[in-house]
Specification:
One of its GO terms (molecular function) is hydrolase activity. The protein is α/β, with parallel strands linked by helices. It has one domain: 3-Layer(aba) Sandwich (Rossmann fold), CATH 3.40.50.1820. It contains ten helices and eight strands. The chain has an eight-stranded mixed β-sheet, with helices on both faces. Helix 9 links the parallel strand 7 and strand 8. The longest helix has 18 residues.
Length: 314
């Protein structure tokens, strides 16, 4: 385990952490790891979920980098090292989910122009929602896309309709940038945060280690505006007529026991795409499929590798 911790808790040799400015000037913390293979296998952009930082996925980056991929990632605005959009400490707030899409589209254009193809994108959770949204809007054009436990609906103690109504009401009743609740990944649950994310205690501990090493990386609960936007925008995406015309080859990894996002909504939504494959996991997997115990994680990585080899060959 010590050897794996050394990989998961250290920035790889040759990687660069820098700042990328969005068109509106908002600074984003970015990660770049050029391929050490000539010619490179291609370039892979990884986008995490709400509250994520790219350090959580260094182990997966190492897997893809060993195959010759050039790797890139960045922290979304309002979280991680990209700074907060709210004065509330550690609150995950954003003015509009459209900001996420605009940031990704602008980053993509610059990144594609300076990295070797083929270009592929992987989005986890909220990152999966943003990737699918910009694909439908034709704002990016990867050779292939992978969505890991995509946030295409929220899992909560009430129905999506009631949740959207309540979040919208709370947004109007006070500062929309205030934290929606105090702790955990969702309210009204007796499950621990680790149980919601992964069965692997060591990989869960990696995130805590990075937060302790650099406290600015910790993102706490979302704002009421974020919650209301999440309900509204995922509903709009599920109802999007353009789903039937999105031609980018896509692989979806779904955790049927997911306690944070709605797997049934993901299966139904991705099922409307003309060129999508699904790989589903049962009770053995929580939300963070790529940070799960080895049997789940190994199966997920193998599925991604097969898909990219077939749909985005070198």
């Amino acid at each position: 385990m010590a050897g794996l911790e050394a990989i998961r808790r250290a920035i790889p040799v040759g990687a660069r952490i820098a700042t990328w400015d969005a068109p509106d000037g908002w600074g984003h913390r970015r990660f770049d790891l050029p391929s050490q293979v000539m010619p490179a296998r291609g370039s892979l952009l990884f986008l995490g979920g709400r509250g994520d930082v790219f350090e959580k996925y260094l182990e997966s980056f190492g897997h893809w980098h060993a195959q010759g991929w050039t790797i890139a990632s960045f922290d979304w605005r309002g979280q991680g090292g990209s700074g907060r959009c709210s004065p509330a400490p550690h609150c995950g707030h954003v003015e509009s989910f459209a900001d996420y899409g605009a940031d990704l589209a602008a980053f993509w254009d610059q990144w594609v122009a300076t990295t070797p193809g083929p270009h592929v994108v992987i989005g986890h959770s909220m990152g999966g929602y943003v990737v699918l949204r910009v694909l439908i809007d034709s704002a990016i054009a990867p050779q292939a896309a992978v969505l890991v436990a995509p946030m295409l609906g929220l899992k909560g103690p009430v129905t999506a309709r009631l949740g959207e109504w309540a979040a919208s009401a709370m947004r109007r009743l006070g500062d929309p940038a205030r934290a929606a609740w105090k702790g955990n990944e969702r309210p009204a649950t007796t499950e621990t945060r680790q149980t919601l994310l992964t069965h692997d205690a060591d990989r869960y501990a990696d995130e805590i280690w990075w937060q302790q090493a650099d406290p600015r990386l910790m993102t706490g609960p979302p704002s009421w505006n974020w919650v209301a936007e999440a309900f509204t925008q995922t509903r709009a995406l599920r109802q999007e007529p353009m789903l039937a015309t999105m031609r980018t080859p896509l692989l979806g990894l779904i955790a049927d026991a997911d306690g944070l996002v709605d797997p049934r909504a993901a299966v139904a939504t991705l099922g409307r795409l003309p060129d999508a494959q699904l790989v589903r996991f049962g009770a053995e997997s929580a939300h963070e499929i790529l940070r799960e115990a080895d049997p789940v994680r190994d199966r997920a990585l193998a599925a991604i590798d097969r898909f990219l080899d077939a749909r985005a060959p070198a």
